[in-house]
Every structure is written in C-alpha cells, then in structure tokens.
Amino acid sequence: MAQPSSPATSASAPADVASLSYEEARDELVTVVSELEQGASTLERSLALWERGEALARRCEEWLLGARERLEAARRQVPAE
Asked: Looking at residue 30, which CATH number applies to its domain?
C-alpha cells in the first residue's frame, strides 16, 4: 500500500521534523519524553528536548489531521444507501 502524501508542514517545525513520517515522529517523541522523565543532565538539554518534543508533537498532529481529512473526503464519496 502506498504511503499517503505528506500533510502541509508547519512553518515552525525544523526541516528534519517536517520530513518525518507519523511513525518516525511518534517514535522519536516517545524517546524524548522518556529522556525528559528520567531527568536530562542540564537545563539547556531539558529545554532542547522540550522544544524538540513540541515540534514532534505538532508533526504528529499534522499527520493525524491530514488522515482525518482524507477519511472524511472518502466518506463523502461513498454513495448513501
């Protein structure tokens, strides 16, 4: 099955985050959250992780919104019985 086209990317997301698939962004977000929960070594590292996590979460949300729009469009195309 072909991968769906990428949703519009956020202007505030770093270029590398904007190119991630949903699964890639989700998996990295899990890693970021885990590291934050364990306590990053410095405040600077914690802030960098937080910012990365926010960008990854936005990317996941973009994918999910795009998927919802595609499903709604597909439903509109199905004739009512």
From this structure: 1.10.287
Q: How many domains does the chain have?
A: 1
Is residue 71 very low, low, confident or very high in pLDDT (cuts 50, 70, 90)? very high
Amino acid, res. 52: R
The whole model's pTM is what? 0.75
End-to-end Cα, the chain, rounded Å:
28
Residue 72 domain flag: yes
pLDDT in tens, 11-64: 456 779 999 999 999 999 999 999 999 987 899 999 999 999 999 999 999 999
Domain contains 5: no
Locus of tokens 């072909």: 2
Q: How far apart are CA 17 and CA 4, in angstroms?
A: 17
Inter-CA distances, 42 with 35, 38, 59, 68, Å: 12, 12, 26, 39
Question: 7 in a domain, yes or no?
Answer: no
